[in-house]
Specification:
This protein is of the alpha/beta class and 311 residues long. It has eleven helices and nine strands. The strands form two sheets. It has a five-stranded parallel β-sheet with strand order 7-6-5-8-9, covered by helices on one side. It has a four-stranded parallel β-sheet with strand order 2-1-3-4. Helix 5 packs across helix 11. Bound molecules: N-carbamoyl-L-aspartate (NCD).
């Protein structure tokens, strides 16, 4: 596999392979010196045309733990501000001899275009509302750690599905692995057409809560909204926000996930965000190991992982 643009590049077997490989990198991350020389001599560049905290730090940490060199490119302080086109920027970075580009862009399909302009591997770190494959992989890894299997499990994804690349990749991943998915949102926050989505839909969070093994909450993605889709955030929280009373309706074993950044008080209250069943920080921790697995699979397959990177 050369690129990771969507989960379809992996398929169900590829997703399982990454999850198994991630176990190895969780073990590496727990070593006293959490570093292996697997990608020594390889260079990974970041092209982040949209804001990011978790995804970017996570990829950087993953690349460092694999001993790769990294090229940091920040749009706000680059020639993009002087009007350089995406293609020229990509060709410039490519000419510096990079092995992989990790791309985040507000336009759906940008990583796909970029893959046509460079010999480097391209990893999609989120494109518009289209896809965010490594987020879905880390969500699957976190769910697998908590629920053991996906077969017969019920996962509800709640909130602004319409604008969410995370929801699109998660639906693909969770159903690929055998789980049932219900989307829970007001009609205005659902995509206008759900043909071909293997999901159920509900507008009533309270009736769904007792039936789930996991609840996946989404942020209201105001930066992608061009019109008012809900009467007010208060009204949204009253219908779809997870507070302590609602969390108490979840089965005891059920976990709560969120890709971050959380808007406490909107989709989740502060108290629920801090409950032990809310595994947001596990998602963050697992994200590093998952991205190590992805980078290793694309750039370093075959390199022995038993030696230490310490020197
Ligand atoms: C998400 C994103 O940027 O797609 N965040 C993330 O990568 N962890 C979700 C969001 O912005 O709400």
């Amino acid at each position: 596999m050369k690129h990771l643009l969507t989960l379809d590049d992996l398929g169900a077997d590829g997703v399982r392979e990454i999850l198994d490989l991630t176990d190895t990198f969780v073990e590496v991350s727990e070593r006293q010196i959490p570093r292996v020389p697997a990608l020594r001599g390889k260079t990974v560049a970041w092209l982040f045309y949209e804001d990011s905290t978790r995804t970017r730090l996570s990829f950087e940490t993953a690349a460092k733990r694999l001993s790769a060199d990294t090229l940091n490119f920040s749009v706000s302080s680059s020639s993009v501000k002087k009007g350089e086109s995406l293609r020229d920027t990509v060709e410039t970075v490519s000419a510096m001899g990079v092995d992989a580009m990790v791309v985040r862009h507000s336009s759906a399909g940008a990583p796909h275009r970029i893959a046509g302009w460079t010999d480097a591997s391209v990893i999609n770190a989120g494109d518009g509302r289209h896809a965010h494959p490594t987020q879905a992989l880390l969500d699957c890894f976190t769910l697998r750690s908590n629920l053991q299997s996906f077969e017969g499990r019920h996962i509800a994804i709640v909130g602004d599905i319409k604008h969410s690349r995370v929801a699109r990749s998660d639906v693909r991943a969770f159903t690929m692995l055998g789980a049932e998915v219900t989307l829970v949102a007001p009609q205005t926050l659902l995509p206008p057409c759900l043909d071909g989505w293997p999901v159920k839909v509900s507008h009533d969070l309270d009736s769904v809560l007792p039936t789930v093994d996991a609840l996946y909450l989404l942020r209201m993605q105001k930066e992608r909204m061009t019109e008012a889709l809900i009467p007010s955030l208060r009204e949204y929280s009253a219908g779809y926000g997870l507070d302590l009373a609602r969390a108490a309706q979840l089965p005891q074993h059920a976990v709560v996930l969120h890709p971050g950044p959380m808007n406490r008080g909107v989709e989740i209250t502060g108290e629920v965000a801090d409950l032990p069943r809310t595994v947001v920080l596990d998602q963050v921790r697992n994200g590093i190991a998952v991205r190590m697995a992805v980078l290793y699979l694309l750039l370093g397959s075959g390199v022995d992982l038993t030696t230490t990177g310490a020197q």
